[in-house]
Amino acid sequence: MSEADRGLADAPPILSDVPGSFTWRVLHDRHPAIIEQVTAAFPYPPRIRAALARLAEDAVSGVIEPLPADAHDAADWAGWSAPYLGMSWYDVPFLWAENYFYRRLLEAVEYFRPGPWRGLDPFTPQKSAELADPALDADLAALAGLAGRPVEEQLTAAVDAALWGNRADLATRVSDPDAEHRKQASDLVADDSAVLRRLLAPGSGGTVCLVADNAGRELMPDLVLIDVLLRNGLADRVELHLKPQPYFVSDAMLHDLLSCLRRLAEAAPALRERLLAALRDGSLEVVTDAFYCEPLSYHDLPGDLAARFREAKLTIVKGDLNYRRLVGDRHWPAATPFEAVTAYFPGAVAALRTLKSEVLVGAPDVAALDAAGPGWRLDGTHGLIQVRT
């Protein structure tokens, strides 16, 4: 069943067809800058460099073309792209265009092709540099010290860190290098943290699904949150949902989790050992699914993921992209109830998000912010905690 069939047609999908708009700048400016970084990241041979150059030109001034017929997922993408073939990238839904750009980028670097470049994450250098930043040590030391504080304080601090850890991902920094250092707003535009605390009461047990967003400095506080949940009986099990392949520059995969665990060896060894023990005994399970790299919203969840979310006491979705997929990447009035647009979701769901795109629901009191312009929705200075039980 389509989004329109579920009553979402009243909110039109976000496009990129207004020159100078945020979405237009992502396609016109950010994507070529990402290709430039990827091209410089590895000593790619001439054929890959040429393919990247073609993508940079095509994604800015070309039209939507199909994947090569011999791509392993050509049939899937043929169905997803059928309505858009031959159209300008700017005239198709923005969420779809972003997804297809990254799929085309993986095709250009031969990520799925037999040969020496198969399986190489093109974003590894950026992710590695972020984890190597000495400034991360202070953050980790503060988060690792939560264990001695009252449980409610631990949970509040861990949720806060997990939320604001999403403030400036690597893709945003490509086009807005000052984003990470811009002053962080203390107020949330929506705050259901009291509801979240009730769902995660001490001794409540159950399974929590945490759908991760970015690697590195965002995944670290996610791991601290997982530790707080398991160590205090706020959950018996946690499923950490990661991407099965490279995605929006900094999105977290299994190898990014393992890199974080290695980084914790010196910075927070006790935390690392607890996480490793949880992985070994099954109280922490890593889940990946192809759906997480498909151009679909959560309205189209496959049956196995829907079953996991239905059986969990809570699913926490992290970050801006997951939020857009959860509520629909549409021009919603900000006052549209979060509960209404997520009513389809198969279980209780919480969104922890730093705002870096225009989409927003469940925030009726933002007229003054909007009157000053859209920048506050885009620059990572505002966040939200929204829960639907």
Automatic annotation (TrEMBL):
Essential cofactor(s): Mn(2+)
Gene Ontology molecular function, alphabetical: metal ion binding; phosphatase activity
GO biological process: DNA damage response
Domain Damage-control phosphatase ARMT1-like metal-binding: 27-366
Pfam families (alphabetical): ARMT1-like_dom
Alphabetical UniProt keywords: Hydrolase, Manganese, Metal-binding
Catalytic activity reported: beta-D-fructose 1-phosphate + H2O = D-fructose + phosphate; beta-D-fructose 6-phosphate = dihydroxyacetone + D-glyceraldehyde 3-phosphate
Family affiliation: Belongs to the damage-control phosphatase family. Sugar phosphate phosphatase III subfamily.
Name used for this protein in its record: Damage-control phosphatase ARMT1-like metal-binding domain-containing protein
Phylogenetic classification of the source organism: Bacteria, Bacillati, Actinomycetota, Actinomycetes, Micromonosporales
